[in-house]
Amino acid sequence: MVENMSEKAAKMLVDVYALFLGLGDKRVPWYAKTLAAITVGYALSPIDLIPDFIPVLGQLDDLLLIPVGIYVTMKLIPEDTINDLRAKAQSMMDGDKPTSWIAGGIVVTIWILVLAAIILNIVQRRSR
Questions:
Q1: CB 2 within 8 A of CB 56
Q2: Burial per residue of 99-120, b for 16 or more beta-carbon CB atoms within 10 angstroms, e otherwise
Q3: Within 13 A of 67's CA, how many CA atoms are on the CB side?
């Protein structure tokens, strides 16, 4: 079972890299590139939308959002293009792995805005 999960995780990583490479490929439609950018940005972001220290939900976002994003995006890209991108991604697995600090910054900004809204709400309720 552990080997099966490990194989699936490795395949998912190859798919993320394939989508990353697809961002610069002219054969990939613009709408697929848009969804690929969101999916890759989230997958490679050093920060999760739902932090992992939140029980169940923290792990659930990684187990659901990323695979669903990969699956939907892959369906939008022609099969021959996907096969080419996967082959390139497989060779990329030995090199440096990209990290999306921009996506991480966006997630941090969202969390700061949410926390600011919560604090503002609490302050307004106490002043009544």
A1: no
A2: ebeebbebbeeeeeeeeeeeee
A3: 11
Six token digits for residue 79: 């099969």
The model's pTM: 0.63
Residue 69 · residue 127 · CB < 8 Å: no
Polymer length in residues for the chain: 128
In the chain, domain spans: 2-126
Query: Euclidean distance between the first and final Cα of the chain, in Å?
Result: 57
pLDDT at 88 over 80: yes
Residues ≥6 apart with Cβ < 8 Å to 66: 12, 16, 39, 42, 43
Packed helices 2-22 and 57-76: angle between N→C axes, nearest 10 degrees: 50
The Cα-based distances of 6 to 13, 36, 107 in angstroms read: 11, 23, 27
97: pLDDT strictly greater than 60:
no
| Residue listed under structure tokens 């990969």 | 70
